[in-house]
Design a protein that fits this description.
elongated, about 60% helix, 6 helices, mainly alpha, three-stranded antiparallel sheet, 3 strands
Length: about 160
């Protein structure tokens, strides 16, 4: 029997995660004494390594629990693996889109720095009278209403 601390070191799973796996019925200790001490069998290290590998592949704890329950059925495990592969490919495509967008943005910024190399000249414009009309219009297409209103004001 291995104490939880020893099992944690051998399996490279933290004590906190071992307790979490116990709560989720993924990896239960063989014995839990009255004082709360948990003990594991050395043979459970195989299950622990499977859990670690499935976590590495990105499976959720619920899926890991399901996979461990059918571990001897290679057809069902293959279904889970194919499903996870599809999800990861979708995620990769999304990441590639973001990477491309970032690269394009960087490229545009660098191009604008080159192209925006122009002289700015400040001039004074003599004072002029002007008229403005402020109103709320239902949509951009109704901009003509503003011009009509201004024409009415000018009359």
């Amino acid at each position: 029997m291995l104490k939880i601390s020893d099992f944690s070191k051998l399996s490279r799973i933290s004590i906190r995660m071992l307790r979490f796996y116990d709560e989720k019925d993924i990896l239960k200790p063989v014995i839990v004494k009255e004082n709360g001490y948990r003990y594991y069998e050395p043979t459970q290290l195989i299950i622990a390594s499977r859990i670690q590998y499935l976590r590495y592949l990105g499976f959720s704890t619920d899926k890991i629990k399901s996979i461990l329950s059918i571990f001897q059925n290679s057809a069902e495990i293959t279904e889970y693996l194919n499903s996870q592969l599809n999800e990861l490919e979708i995620e990769r495509n999304k990441l590639n889109e973001k990477i491309n967008a970032l690269s394009l943005t960087i490229q545009k910024i660098n191009q604008e720095e080159i192209m925006m190399n122009y002289q700015v000249e400040i001039k004074e414009i003599p004072a002029k009278y002007m008229m403005c009309k402020r109103a709320i219009i239902p949509s951009y297409e109704k901009e003509g209403l503003l011009w009509q209103g201004m024409n009415n004001e000018l009359k």
